[in-house]
Design a protein that fits this description.
Blueprint (H helix, E strand, L loop, with lengths): L1 H8 L16 E9 L6 E7 L10 E2 L2 E3 L7 H13 L7 E5 L3 E2 L5 E9 L12 E8 H5 L4 E8 L2 E10 L2 E4 H15 L18
Parallel strand pairs: 1-7
Antiparallel strand pairs: 1-4, 2-3, 2-8, 5-7, 6-7, 9-10, 10-11
């Protein structure tokens, strides 16, 4: 499985693209993939419940671009080291995936990075409640993709998600994850949104 993933990414550049230069409108994330031949694992985080934005949600390590970051890859690596103590020298960056936008129109650049298995990753308590890993095979089982209810200050919707050991993987993180799996493994995962008509950014 790992060879198929890495082979499919060989033609995709790392894309050290410069940011637009407007702080607060761009971000970058890392999709950390463990170097395990048969069933690599994807590293995810759970944002801290005390945060004002997206509290308690599952996310890839990463965050917003800052003026001292030379490009968006620097942003992804800096945020990853700050959040889970995964350092740039421990990551082999394989590719940069297409920029996507959150429902609040934040531009997010995902990068894929290969890491050794069983690294002593540590969740920064100022930002995260947990860091965890999920085998890629888990996401490839159609029985694990379900619909659950999510609510927040400006939404109350039934949405697709994976639930792994109590962690709900949904929203923008789910979209990036599924795009990655469909691209690299031809997984054919299609997300069903029962409340699609209501999926509009707040006015």
């Amino acid at each position: 499985m790992l060879k198929q993933i890495t082979d499919s990414l060989k033609s995709i550049p790392v894309d050290r693209i410069p940011p637009l230069g407007e702080e607060g409108v761009e971000a970058a994330i890392l999709i950390p993939l463990t170097r395990e031949v048969r069933d690599p694992k994807i590293i995810l985080t759970k944002r801290a419940e005390h945060l004002n934005s997206h509290s308690g949600e599952v996310a890839f390590p990463g965050g917003k671009w800052e003026p001292e970051d030379a490009d968006l890859l620097v942003t992804a690596l800096r945020e990853t080291s700050e959040e889970i103590a995964l350092w740039p020298e421990q990551i082999k960056v394989l590719a940069g995936l297409p920029i996507n936008r959150t429902r609040h129109l934040l531009r997010v650049k995902p990068y894929v990075g290969l890491i050794e298995p069983q690294l002593p990753l540590v969740a920064n308590p100022e930002e995260l409640d947990a860091v965890f890993e999920v085998p890629v095979s888990y996401f490839l089982d159609p029985a694990h993709l379900t619909i659950d209810h999510f609510s927040g200050e400006d939404y109350s919707l039934d949405m697709p998600c994976y639930i792994f050991e109590g962690y709900r993987i949904w929203g923008f993180t789910l979209v990036v994850l599924v795009d990655f799996l469909n691209l690299t493994l031809d997984a054919g995962i299609r997300l069903r949104y029962p409340d699609r008509i209501n999926l509009r950014p707040p006015a």
